[in-house]
């Protein structure tokens, strides 16, 4: 994954495209495209330094953002609380999740995806995951 902040930092220090491409492990064309987008958008370096990497990536290349954006992320901790409180099923929680997604103008995951993510949430953590 290209680190745009690093490219911009090296550009501000005066490195040439070949040096930046080598340091950032990307192509010279990528460095050139980043510079072209910054010039096209008229963004100052001060504004860029205040941004996070993800914000900068979306600003420079919005067409490269993953298609998964636009989905409502399920809050399984809340869903479990609701299932216990109302003695409801996972299917009913999924239906409520779909209604919330519709109200927020976001897409909802399918039933199969919802169950898969719930299984990932419920899966016990191993000791290897702990730092």
How many discrete structural domains? 2
Q: What share of residues is helical?
A: 55-70%
> What oligomeric state do these chains adopt?
single chain
Structural class: mainly alpha
**Broad shape:** elongated
Mean pLDDT: 86
Poorly predicted segments: none
Per DSSP, the total helix count is 8
The helix/strand order is: HHHHHHHH
The count of strands amounts to: 0
In short:
The chain is an all-alpha fold. The chain is 63% helix and 0% strand. The protein folds into two domains: 4-64; 76-124, no CATH class.
Give an account of the 3D structure.
The chain has 131 residues and is an all-alpha fold. It is built from 8 helices and no strands. The chain folds into 2 domains: 4-64; 76-124, no CATH class. Helix content is 63%, strand content 0%. Helix 1 (4-13) packs antiparallel against helix 2 (17-24) and helix 2 (17-24) crosses helix 3. The protein is elongated, with a radius of gyration of 21 Å. The model has no long low-confidence stretch (mean pLDDT 86).
List the helices and strands and how they pair.
Elements: H1 4-13, H2 17-24, H3 28-41, H4 45-50, H5 53-60, H6 76-86, H7 90-103, H8 111-122
Helix pairs in contact: 1-2, 2-3
